[in-house]
Write a structure and sequence with these properties.
Layout: E1 12-16, H1 35-55, H2 74-88, E2 95-101, E3 107-109, E4 116-122, H3 132-148, H4 155-168, H5 173-177, E5 180-181, E6 185-189, H6 194-208, H7 219-235, H8 246-262, E7 276-279, E8 285-290, E9 297-301, E10 305-309, E11 316-320
Helix pairs in contact: 1-4, 2-3, 3-4, 4-6, 6-7
Bound molecules: zinc ion (2 copies).
């Protein structure tokens, strides 16, 4: 692949009542259809970057650093915002060359050897300048992941990885904030649903003690964030974690009893049950479950209160197994 330019497209979903569609978007998708891939993306990021590097992204892109008024010069402003993304992702020698043209998708980037990368933005950004930061948060993240050599097989999964990484590392809140609906039109950028963006943003907020809710200019983005945040909090309230609620603990005790009775190979039922009991050779029963922070699977012995530390993200997990 060396030297081969790879084009990628960045999707915009947009519609206007009573007028021609700006792009081929269709209705905005909601909920958590990509949650498994989103979680796998977070795990992959920790594996590739390590805990220490993730920690260096404790500060998000500030709204003031990517502010872009419609009276600002288009090209100078786009270059300024791109430089801010390059600085945020720590790509010291990378230079983004921004152009605008009419196209179906929101943006694309040519993933070549660098240090110059060509990013094309949809002409619509000429009159939606405040969303240029969102588009560049995604496109410059493509460059970052390209340089890391981190990718998923398949375009769709790769785009989910890109949105998740941008959001987890502090720039993707702009993508969520670009989601707006009013009586006449709707707009959403990126491949995650609004709630999935909210979920990743909340995972980040929990990690760094951040409150991104004050940055939103879009009421719909704020609502999606609160929904995603509730979902993110639930990750830390699953048995065998001690923060699990009564119903979860009761179900866990029943599943554990079945595993003990039925022996090796018994799996906990249901897709929403995150833990699995496994035999440990001929030894005692063990339970595995996803780390609530990085989603790598943790395995601990079934023997009452256990404190474990995730080897990948270093989260300390209080368990009652
Ligand atoms: Zn993309
Ligand atoms: Zn972890």
């Amino acid at each position: 692949m060396a030297g081969l330019a790879v084009l990628e497209w960045f999707r915009v979903e947009s519609r206007r009542r009573g007028g021609a569609d700006v792009t081929n978007g269709g209705p905005v998708q909601h909920g958590y259809p990509h949650l498994d891939r989103v979680r796998a993306s977070i795990t992959a990021l920790y594996k590739r970057l390590s805990y220490d590097t993730v920690q260096t992204f404790a500060t998000s892109v500030a709204p003031v650093d990517v502010a872009f008024a419609d009276t600002d010069d288009l090209h100078l402003g786009a270059q300024r915002v791109a430089r801010e993304m390059v600085r945020h992702y720590r790509l010291p020698d990378a230079r983004m060359i921004i152009g605008f043209r009419e196209m179906t998708h929101a943006a694309n980037v040519e993933l070549a050897a660098g240090p110059e990368y060509f990013i094309e933005l949809n002409d619509r950004f000429r009159v939606h300048r405040r969303d240029i930061g969102a588009a560049l948060a995604h496109e410059v993240m493509h460059v970052y992941l390209h340089r890391l050599g981190l990718s998923f097989p398949g375009t769709r999964d790769n785009e989910i990885l890109t949105d998740t990484a941008a959001t987890y590392l502090g720039a993707g809140w702009l993508l969520l904030d670009a989601y707006r609906e009013d009586g006449a039109s709707s707009q959403k950028l990126g491949y995650l649903t609004p709630e999935e963006f909210g979920y990743v943003l909340a995972k980040r907020a929990l990690l760094f003690g951040e409150d991104p809710s004050v940055w939103f200019t879009s009421p719909q983005a704020y609502t999606a964030y609160t929904k995603g945040a509730a979902r993110a909090r639930r990750d830390a309230e699953q048995p065998p974690l001690t923060a699990a609620g009564w119903a979860g603990r009761r179900r866990y005790a029943r599943d554990r009893r079945h595993a003990q009775d039925l022996g090796p190979g018994h799996r906990a039922p249901g897709p929403e049950v995150p833990y699995t009991f496994t035999p440990d050779g001929r030894g005692p029963l063990r339970v595995s479950f996803p780390c609530p922070t990085c989603h790598q699977r943790i395995r601990v012995p079934v023997r009452g209160r256990v404190r474990a530390r995730c080897g990948l993200c270093r989260t300390v997990l209080e368990c009652d197994t």
